[in-house]
């Protein structure tokens, strides 16, 4: 994190761990004391770093109509995370981080979830929303790509939205013209930028750079390591793929032409004048907090409701004030 900070790079991360996350197939059973304890530990860790920009309460959990019932559980996790950060801040001055959610798509299913998670009591509402978007392919424009309809669909969100992934790799080469569109006056009314997918090269061929080395990762055979090395070496020597090589103490860094195109388009956005109206978003944000959600209906109701907290807040307050041990129900 320190190296990222020195490079001017900010970080979003999820609160889930490899052992505990909200299970889309059985969301209510996966919302329990152990899970929340681990989520709180993630908060404590990431709040230490000045370049932590925010936390995700979930990532692509409701990716089909049959698991929309996870929505109330996601909202419960947001509620508990916000309450925990408020108590930690009062007890120790620890930073309060924005809490958001990452959607797999930008379709109607996910925009319904966006509305549900962002309206009503701010104590249980997300602060930002991110989505994966691969609508723009090759040479296109706002109309052909569907970005115009995307703007219309999300324009009433009243919370910061950005693309957590974008940049299809077919057709090749990747032009990244959508980067210019993303920061245009039309889109900056709704979107706060985005993250091109992805930095390191992988078998899916979405990487912008690659590292040629012969390090031996755990659980990898010497044969597998050598095979990956040869593949990376072939890419590095392919002038149609690699624009430049940089020699580091960890190996040769191959910088792809895709990265150069992305970087140049990103630089060009600095000259784009935004017409973003901050006061409008502030007003709309205040209004969404006053929405009476009891008068709204959702696809997963009435069968599925936001569960009561699994955290014993009195015990937690005692722990934070040094009076007792942390305990969750």
From TrEMBL:
Its EC number is 2.4.1.-. GO terms for molecular function: 1,3-beta-glucanosyltransferase activity. InterPro entries: GH, Glucanosyltransferase. One of its GO terms (cellular component) is side of membrane. The keyword Glycoprotein applies. Keywords: Glycoprotein, GPI-anchor, Lipoprotein, Membrane, Signal, Transferase. Belongs to the glycosyl hydrolase 72 family. Splits internally a 1,3-beta-glucan molecule and transfers the newly generated reducing end (the donor) to the non-reducing end of another 1,3-beta-glucan molecule (the acceptor) forming a 1,3-beta linkage, resulting in the elongation of 1,3-beta-glucan chains in the cell wall. This is 1,3-beta-glucanosyltransferase. It comes from Epicoccum nigrum.
């Amino acid at each position: 994190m320190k190296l990222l900070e020195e490079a001017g790079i900010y970080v979003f991360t999820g609160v889930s761990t490899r052992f505990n996350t909200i299970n889309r197939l059985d969301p209510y059973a996966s919302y329990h004391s152990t899970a929340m304890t681990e989520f709180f530990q993630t908060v404590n860790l990431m709040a230490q770093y000045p370049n932590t920009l925010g936390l995700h309460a979930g990532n692509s959990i409701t990716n089909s109509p049959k698991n929309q019932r996870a929505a109330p559980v996601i909202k419960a996790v947001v509620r508990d995370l916000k309450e925990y950060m408020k108590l930690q801040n009062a007890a120790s001055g620890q930073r309060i981080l924005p809490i958001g959610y990452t959607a797999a798509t930008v379709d109607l299913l996910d925009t319904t979830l966006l509305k549900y998670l962002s309206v009503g009591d701010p104590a249980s509402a997300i602060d930002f929303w991110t989505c994966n978007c691969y609508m723009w392919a090759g040479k296109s424009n706002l109309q052909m790509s569907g970005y115009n309809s995307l703007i219309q669909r999300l324009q009433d969100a009243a919370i910061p939205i950005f693309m957590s992934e974008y940049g299809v790799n077919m057709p090749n080469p990747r032009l990244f013209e959508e980067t210019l569109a993303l920061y245009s006056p039309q889109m900056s009314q709704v979107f706060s930028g985005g993250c091109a997918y992805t930095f390191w090269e992988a078998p899916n061929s979405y990487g912008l750079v690659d590292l040629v080395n012969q390090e031996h990762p755990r659980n990898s055979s010497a044969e597998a390591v050598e095979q990956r090395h040869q593949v990376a070496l072939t890419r590095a020597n392919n002038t149609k793929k690699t624009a430049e090589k940089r020699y580091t103490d960890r190996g040769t860094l191959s910088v792809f032409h895709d990265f150069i195109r992305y970087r140049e388009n990103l630089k060009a956005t600095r000259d784009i004048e935004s017409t973003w109206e901050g006061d409008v978003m502030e007003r709309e944000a205040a209004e969404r907090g006053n929405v009476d959600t009891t008068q709204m209906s959702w696809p997963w109701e009435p069968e599925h409701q936001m569960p009561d907290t699994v955290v014993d807040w009195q015990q937690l307050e005692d722990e934070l004030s040094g009076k007792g041990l942390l305990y969750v129900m």
